Amino acid sequence: MPPISRGFRGRRPPVDPTRVPPGQYVERDFPVLSAGPTPRVDLDRWQLSIDGAIDRAASWSWEQFRALPQETFTVDIHCVTKWTKLDTTWTGVAVDTLLAGLSPGGAFVSVWCDGGYTTNLPLADLTDGRAWVVHEYDGAPLPPEHGGPARLLVPHLYFWKSAKWVRGLTITVADEPGFWERGGYHRRGDPWREERYWSD
């Protein structure tokens, strides 16, 4: 019988290239990238808000947020640093659910977070089942280093748009660049178009 190497795990299954945007490679781990230190949040004081150009502002405590209709789904995610992670599973609340009955009066959103991070998105990229505020990853509470207790998840855009430690969405009439966008990153960030920087 031939010797068995404990380090040998066989070949990895082939990846469908149509799932990987141009310039990306598949990452098996989940790298941690942040613009600053990781905030530690007291859930008793946590609140998620929607305000700005909207008929009425709304907010939810942690208990109220967890009581909203929840969805569990599996998506691929794509980081601007060129890694793609396939088949990630999350649980959270659809942005459509949060916006129900609020009648936004602007076409853009500024997302703001604990730690001072902000990012901007067209409202259309957050609606019609395209974005969620998530609090679980792979069946467990979302770790702080990955944005817990809750982060925005917009899987069809580069991952910097999926803001960690999200606390609010402000509806705006004009597009207002956020933290990385003011530093030269693309205002939208479509990985299939390689929209990494303003010049792309």
From TrEMBL:
Task: Domain (Oxidoreductase molybdopterin-binding): give its ranges.
Answer: 36-180
Listed PANTHER family: OXIDOREDUCTASE MOLYBDOPTERIN-BINDING DOMAIN-CONTAINING PROTEIN, PROTEIN-METHIONINE-SULFOXIDE REDUCTASE
Q: Pfam families under this entry?
A: Oxidored_molyb
What is the protein name given in its UniProt record? Oxidoreductase molybdopterin-binding domain-containing protein
* Database matches in InterPro entries: OxRdtase_Mopterin-bd_dom, OxRdtase_Mopterin-bd_sf
Region annotation (Disordered) ranges:
1-21
